[in-house]
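Researcher: Please predict.
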Amino acid sequence: MVDLQKIEQLILPILSEKGLELVDLEFVREGHGWALRVFIDKDGGVNLDDCAETSYEISALFEVEDPIAPAYRLEVSSPGLDRPLKKDADYVRFTGQLVKILTQQGIDPDGRGYNRKTFIGKLLGLEGGVVSVEQQDKQGGIVTLSLSEIESARLEEDFSTGMSRQRTPSRTLQGDSENGGQP
C-alpha cells in the first residue's frame, strides 16, 4: 500500500536541513479518508512555524514525487509531552526522565511474584540493548528490560513534583493532499 520507508527517505533531507528529527511516521485510516502523520522534534521542542514550514516543503516535494496513491491529509506535529521513545538514541537522550514502558508480554523482572506489562519510572539509561528503569511505585527498585521485550515506551509527565519538562505544547498543522497540503 504505502511504503513508509520510501516516504521517510524522501522527507529526511528536508528535516535534516531544518535541524529537525523524525520521531515517527504513520499512515492511518481515519473515517472515510487517510492521514499521513509526520511527528518532528528538535532540542527545545518544535513550534507551529516549524510544523507549518515542514508541512509546506513536504507537500511541495510530494506534488513532484507522488509517493502516496490514495487521497490523504498531511499532518505535521510535535510528538507531544508523551513523546515515544523509538530509537536507541532516545533512551540515552532522555535518561533521567520519567517514562512509561509497555512490554510485549507480562514479565516479572524484579521477582515480585506476578507478571506485569507496564513499568513506570525514571529512565536510567540503555546499555547493551537493555533499558534500566528505577520504578516509581511503592515497592520501587530497578528493573532491566531488553529492547526486544519492549512493545512501546513513552515519556511520562511527572505531575507529582508540580514541574513539567520544558517543552513546546503539541501542535498539529493539517493539510489536504487535494489542495497541495495547504491547511
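Model: Residues 4-80+169-179 form a domain with the GMP Synthetase; Chain A, domain 3 fold (CATH 3.30.300.70).
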